[in-house]
Structure formats: C-alpha cells, structure tokens
Design brief:
Chain lengths: 772, 104
C-alpha cells in the first residue's frame, strides 16, 4: 500500500481533530467505545447543524464519510439527548443532488465550470459594478448559519476592503428584534441568563414559542425540571394551540399583536397591587419613552430613528393607567381575572420566574417594543440576573448569536456590540483590521428586506448569497423573486450544498462544504461558543464558503486582509481582540477545541453563567449586587420602556377575514433544504398543510384534507386543510409551515417590519380562504 | 454485551426458571436503559403505525400502551419519564395497526 504525502497529511490532520475532541471525555460507556473501534468508526465532536439550542453531538466517521451521530453525553446543553433532526444529522450531507461543481448560467441552462472560471466571472462582475455604480451596488447576504470565520471574513472584506456596509444576515428575519430589545434595555446584546435557568426555576412563561417542536431539547429540560419539582408551572401564551400547549400547565390564548397590551396589563397590575421590588427599581432602573405611531416599513427606503426621553416612575405609572385588566381583556381576549392572576404569579416572591420567547416576539412589527415590555416585567419585580430567574430570548439558527450578532454581520454592526455610526468604533475596527482610517463607511445601508428591495429597484446590482435561502424565506416573496431576475446588470451568486429555490434564480451557483466538512465555530442562545474540526472532505469540488470569500478578496486586490496560514485559528485570535475588556471576552482558540463550549465572558479560562450578577460575572464589583455595566449612558442601569399597544400593519377585514401565521414543525428546519433530503423526516411530514379551526371549516363547507385556495393581497396558494393536525388553529386563524419548497407560503406574507429592528412580521397578515 | 444486561440476564433466567413467564419476558430483558438508548448509533425507532391523534384534552396517548410491558403487542419504553414521545419517535412507514383498548 502506498500513501502519498498529501494523504498522509490529511490523515494526520484528521487524527489530530479526533484527538482534540478529547477522547477520554468522549464516551463514558467504555464498552460502546470498544464496539465503535471494532467497527472502525472514529468519533469527533460538533454542535448540531440546526437550531440555536446548540446541542453537542458526536459524529462517527468511517472511510471519510459520516456513518453515525449521537447526542454527546459530555455536552452540558443536551446531556446526550437529541431531537429527531439531530438523530438524522448523519444523512443531511448525503442527499443525491448534492452540488459538487460550480455552475454558470447560460440562458436557461446552468453549465458546469471550473472554480477559476466561476471566480473570474464573479470578480469581474464585482469590479465592473463597483467601478460603474460605486461600492454600495454590491452586497453580501449571509446567515446565522455562517461559522464565525465565514461571517468575520465577509464583514472584513465588504466593510473593510470593498468599503460598503451592504452586509446582512438572514438573522435580520429572525433575531433582529431580540438584538434591538437587548440594546435598548441593557445596551448590550444577548441574555443575562443561561440554560441552567431551565433547571433551576419553577415558573416559566412561554410567549408565542412552540418549544416542544422548535426547541425540543430545551423543552425536555423544562419537562424534566417539572418531573423533579411538582411546583414547576409552565404557562403557554399563544395564538395557536400547539404541542407545547398540550404539555403546559396553562394555555392562555390571546389575539394576535395583543402581547403588547398583555405585558402592559401585567405591569399595570404589578404597580396597582404594589407587587414591584422597590429597592431593585431604585438602584438599577431608569424609565424612558420613545416615539409612537412609528409606522410599518412598507414603503421602499423607509427610515426611522427613535427619540428616547427620560421619564420618571410616576410618569410611567401614568402611562400604564389605561392598561387596566378590563381594557387589556377586551383587546386580547384573555379574561381580566387571568391577567390579574398571572401578574401575581410573575411577581410572587416565592417563585423563580422565567420568560421564554422566539419568533412570536421577534417577527413582529413592534418586535423591539415587545422585547422591551417583557424585560419591564422582570425589572419591575427584580426577577433578573439571578440563578433560576431570567428573561431568555431563544434563537432559531445555530450561530445567529455567535456569528450574526457577535461578529456583527448586520449593515450597522461591527464585532462586540460596536456600530458603524460611532467614529470610535470604526477606528477600533480599522486598527484591528489594519486598514486605512476612514475606510469603513459611517452610514448603514439596507436591512435584509430593503436589500432585496434595492436589488428589485436596481440600486444593488451584484449580490452574493451564502448559507441561506432568501428566495424561499423573504416575506412578500413574489416581488423579490421577480426582482432577482430583472436583468439589466443584476447578478446573483448563490453558494449552497443543494439546489434550492434560491439557486434556481442564480447566475452562478457555487458548491459549498457543509457542517463538519469544514472547521467552524458556532455560538448558541446561552452565549456558548462551540468549536469543531473538519471531520470529512466535502464531495467533488465543493469548497468552504470561507475560502470562497477570501478567494474573491484575493481577486479584487484585498488579499492582504487575509494573511493567514492556519486561517481559522488566526481569524479567531484577531476577532478576540474586539471582545477583550468589553464584557464579551473569549478564550484562546485551543480552549474551545477541548471544551464542550464556553459561555462568554470567559475570563481567566472561566465562563460566566449569569451576566451582570455579583459572584457570577467578574465585571461586577463586590457590593454592587447587580450592575448593568454596559449601559454607561444611563449610569449602569437598565431601561424600563413605556411602549404602547399599536395595531399590526394588516388585520383581517371583510375581504380578507382570517389571520395567517407561519412557522416551523419538528421534523423540518427552516426552508427544509437539509431535512427535506432525509427520507425519514420527509416521510413524517412530507408537505405543508393549512391548519384551520373545525368550526371555521364547517362554516366554509370545507372537509378535512380538502384543498383550499388561500389568498392575501400579495399572493395565493393551494393547500389541503388539516383539521386534526398536531397544532390546533384558533377560530379566525390559520397556520402554515414554511419549510415546503413546493408551496411558497411566504408569497402571501406581508413585508412590514419593526421600524427599530427592521425585522419583518411573518406571524400576522390577512387572508381569505376559498374551496379550490 | 452491555453491563446492565450482563447483570440482569442471569437474574432473569433464574426468575424464569422459578416463575415460568406468561408474557414475553425475553424482550423486556433486552431493553437497554435510557442512557444506552440515547447513545445508540442509529436514530430512535420510527413509529410503524399511524400516530393516534391526541385525546380530547390534547394529551398524547402513546404511554397508555407503551409505558410498561402490560400490553402484549406494544414494546415498552425504557424511559417512561419522557412524555414527549414524538419529539424523537416520528411517523415511519405504516406496517401495523394500533390495537385499541388492550391496556388494563
């Protein structure tokens, strides 16, 4: 047998990767390990590829192929458990139609090309557009599934090299309101608490979050907690009865959009009945009120800037006067008595209270406000920054936190909570990046929706899409799909591992490496940064997105931005400089190779479980108790915001009498490009259905599984009605999952967004239903 | 052989000799514990029958047959504490029908 030098190097690198995964820690079952060794399977560690929970998995590799995965018993997030998607991880990279060669559009056909041809063409289009229309005519649209390295390289090339802030992630469509909520209340992004609160608390308010399907492993931690402790209560606020509602102790149905009023109603009762923590408020809180009637971002080039004003406690109390339980009950449909009871439960001194939410709050035309309002309740009652009681924003993508938010791959952001609008922040970034002062533009350009509006108008000519599928996931999809193919110099590049509804609109398709076919770092929802090594080679000529971005940089003359040998490690050490001393400190790269993730700030090798809390967060000085130390402008206090109820952009009327809500199901993840290629998952939930209330169906004369035409002002779709599905729609509401690439429900969604966060509302628009 | 099985098997064999089993005891012996289940390399078993709709309170009914070995046709779960069965066990190819009302 002969081994080439290249094979030898590859083999040694792989051996190092597995060794670094910490073999003694890998498997507590010695017998299992022995069996695995017999079968010739080698195990490495990685975070799961799917949601923001960040479960640890062990990946079994044989003959350069993933043959098995299992929950990592050493991973603190999931302790060996996975959800069904995680159990099928070994199959997600091996769909039959994997992209393995660059493809270039020739008329209606996509023709195979070499990497050199594809990259020359792409670099040429970038140069041409920049020369002719300026740097703001080119853009990169990435993802909360980008590794930290991929996001960092994209931001550095576009902001620091090309000189445009046209950098956006799909996380704008899912997490942006959480970011602006954190920034406006605490002046620093990401939660104070962590998943340990799921084990330590006893009262859990879920707001529009179907955790049983969308964060199953975290939900099972909640259920385990309840099994140990009969005092545990789970209250599910929702507009739809889900699997989560089935498992909750109480389900509270409310009318869409009235979460704003409910939270103000709860605050009203807390003040009225003097249930608040006066000492906490005096020491740690200021009150503010911003602009109202702020619009919905429906017009192109919509702009908004809030004007916050300080108010005092009495003015806040005055503001809440209208939100009596009776008034809120009329708006929300929740009985006044329930509102009072739940306010008392929130404030019960003997209870450790947590709030959990995801897209119900974030995909909301008042997403920032509703995030602010849930923090209000925790700040009023002082139930925050303590083990077992915290508000916790869950995330939907594996590195929405680690990459999109922490690296700052939004148009206005830079790493570590910095923004392009601030000259000191730009100067710091320019220094670390070693680029000329003044290179990073001071003005943010487009949020995700506006970026695709600009492509439709022709203001953006060249867009590179990486690790995401916008032409299935954008709202008001019709407009943006047409816009992408309008010609006139528009040029769309899509990097992916499979053909998608986005690659079909591309001028160039680049085959990418996926998940453990490359080295990566992801950051989950509890600030846990998790690293993995490359464990298998990508198929054919597929290549890492990081390499793709750096190759464009080289061809555009910005190669000097990436002078690395061990690219991932060196990017990490450079990126770490942004975070040092900012309350966001990260450990050296080697630490992550060994650990099952570490929660930042990591100081002297020690992770932080509860931010802003004395004894847990080293940034808080002795005797301070709690310090919101990132909010210097408000003397290190958090902000309670007076934010009113305002109606959604579109409500049902006589012509369009139903609410449409979209979302996810357990078996599929986002647009289903990976889960749809696992036969078992596909069979379990093959295609989208329309969940409807049986009484609504009876009135319309529609039977179970009969086909209906659902139409909004923007588009229509034909789907079978499910009256007996896993979720139960409330009267006047329908629900459709968005994973099905054959049924683009987002054609119907409205592209209204929160003026502060720029995040669209996928949960509310008006539709009509007819027999098809 | 799994350590648990190694200890349990002789005990079970002894028990079977003393008390000849009526139910299929062998199957029960082979059920590994939850930790081993989670560490097995394949995905959790798919459900080979249509998953019954939740009861009128919206609760799943899986455990009414699968909780213990009392039902002769339904394999018992190794982890009856986990109530959210369909988080891991999803609909597979339907090869069996659910036999109703066999419990108790």
């Amino acid at each position: 047998m002969t081994i080439s030098r290249r094979d030898f190097l590859k083999a040694s690198a792989a051996a190092a990767a597995f060794a670094a995964a910490g073999a003694p820690l890998l498997n507590p079952l010695a017998s299992g390990e022995a069996e695995a060794a017999e079968a010739g399977i080698k195990w490495g560690k990685a975070p799961c590829r799917f949601c923001g929970t960040g479960c640890g998995v062990l990946v079994g590799v044989k003959n350069n192929r993933i043959v098995a995965t299992k929950g990592d018993p050493s991973a603190p997030v999931n302790r060996g458990l996975n959800c069904i998607k995680g159990y099928f991880l070994s199959k997600i990279l091996y769909g039959r139609d994997r992209l393995t060669k660059p493809l270039i559009r020739k008329g209606d056909r996509m023709v195979e090309a070499s990497w050199d041809e594809a990259m020359s063409l792409i670099a040429g289009k970038f140069r041409e557009s920049i020369d002719k229309n300026g740097p703001d005519s080119v853009a990169i649209y990435g993802s909360g599934q980008w590794t930290v390295f991929e996001g960092y390289a994209a931001s550095k090339l576009f902001k620091g090299g090309i000189g445009t802030n046209n950098v956006e992630p799909n996380a704008r469509l899912c997490m942006a309101s959480a970011v602006t909520g954190f920034m406006t209340t605490f002046a620093s992004d990401e939660p104070m608490g962590c998943y340990d609160d799921l084990d330590l608390g006893d009262t859990y308010f879920l707001w529009g979050a179907n955790m049983a399907e969308c964060h199953p492993v975290l939900f099972s931690r909640l259920i385990d907690n309840r099994l140990r402790n009969p005092n545990v209560k789970i209250i599910d606020f929702g507009t739809r009865r889900t699997r989560t509602s089935q498992m909750a102790d109480q389900y509270v149905r409310f009318n869409p959009q009235t979460d704003l009023a409910l939270l103000n109603g709860i605050a009203h009762v807390i003040l009225r009945d003097r249930l608040y923590d006066e000492t906490f408020i005096k020491r740690h809180v200021v009150f503010k009120r911003g602009k109202e009637n702020i619009g919905y971002g429906l017009e192109d080039k919509f702009k908004f800037a809030d004007e916050p004003k300080l108010i005092n406690f009495d003015e806040y109390r005055e503001f809440l006067k209208t939100y009596t339980p009776e008034y809120v009950s009329r708006l929300s449909g929740v009985p006044a008595k329930t509102i009072v009871e739940l306010a008392h439960l929130y404030a019960d001194r003997k209870r450790k209270v947590n709030s959990l939410w995801t897209m119900g709050f974030n995909q909301h035309t008042r997403g920032t406000w509703v995030n602010n309002l849930v923090y209000n309740v925790h700040l009023l009652t002082g139930k925050i920054c303590r083990p077992g009681e915290n508000p916790m924003s869950l995330t939907g993508q594996p590195s929405a936190c680690g990459t999109a938010r922490e690296v700052g791959t939004f148009t206005h952001r830079l790493p570590a909570d910095m923004v392009v609008m601030n000259p000191e922040h730009r100067a710091k970034a320019e220094k670390i990046w070693g680029i000329a002062p003044g290179k990073i533009p001071a003005k943010p350009t487009y949020n995700a929706t506006e970026m695709f509006r600009a492509l439709d108008r022709g203001d953006i000519k060249v867009v590179w899409i990486q690790v995401t599928n916008p032409f299935q996931s954008l709202p008001n999809l019709n407009r943006y799909r047409k816009g992408a193919r309008k010609g006139d110099g528009r040029f769309v590049i899509v990097s992916d591992i499979y053909p998608t509804r986005s690659t079909e609109l591309a001028d160039v398709i680049l085959p990418s490496a996926g998940w453990v076919e490359k080295e990566g770092v992801y950051g989950n929802a509890e600030r846990r940064t998790q690293q993995w090594f490359k464990l298998v080679d990508p198929p054919g000529e597929a290549r890492n997105d990081l390499w793709q971005t750096m190759e464009l940089a080289r061809r555009l003359g910005h190669g000097s931005l990436f002078p690395y040998k061990y690219v991932e490690k060196e990017i990490w050490e450079e990126y770490r400089k942004f975070n040092e001393g900012q309350g966001k400190d990260l450990a050296p790269y080697e630490a992550y190779a060994k650990a099952r993730g570490l929660r930042w700030p990591v100081i002297n090798g020690k992770e932080t479980l509860w931010r802003y809390a004395e004894g847990h967060d080293p940034y808080v000085k002795k005797g301070e108790g709690v310090s919101f130390y990132k909010n210097k402008a408000d003397h290190y206090r958090a902000v309670i915001w007076a934010r009113p109820y305002e109606p959604p952009a579109e409500s049902p009327d006589r012509q369009y009498p139903f609410w449409l809500c979209t979302g996810r199901v357990l078996e599929h993840w986002h647009t289903g490009t990976m889960t749809g290629r696992v036969p078992e998952l596909k069979r379990a939930y093959p295609s989208a259905v329309c969940e409807m209330h049986p009484e609504d169906a009876r009135k319309l004369g529609i039977k179970h599984l009969q086909k209906v035409k659902i139409s909004s002002r923007r588009g229509s779709i034909i789907l079978p009605v499910d009256l007996n599905g896993r979720g139960k729609a409330e009267k006047g509401n329908i629900f459709v999952a968005f994973f099905d690439e054959g049924k683009l429900i987002n054609d119907l969604c409205i592209d209204a967004y929160c003026p502060i966060s720029g995040e669209p509302d996928y949960k509310k628009c008006a539709v009509k239903i007819e027999k098809a | 052989m799994k350590p648990v099985v190694r200890i349990l098997l002789p005990a079970m064999v002894a028990q079977m000799l003393l008390f000849p089993p009526f139910a299929v005891a062998e199957d029960e012996v082979a059920v590994p514990n939850e930790r081993e289940i989670m560490q097995s390399e394949g995905p959790p078993p798919l459900v080979p029958h249509a998953i019954p709709a939740p009861d009128k309170n919206g609760k799943l009914t899986c455990l009414s047959c699968h909780e213990d070995g009392k039902s002769k046709t339904a394999p018992p779960t190794s982890h009856p504490d986990r109530k959210m069965c369909i988080q891991c066990h999803i609909q597979g190819e339907i090869t069996k029908t659910v036999i109703k009302g066999k419990k108790k």
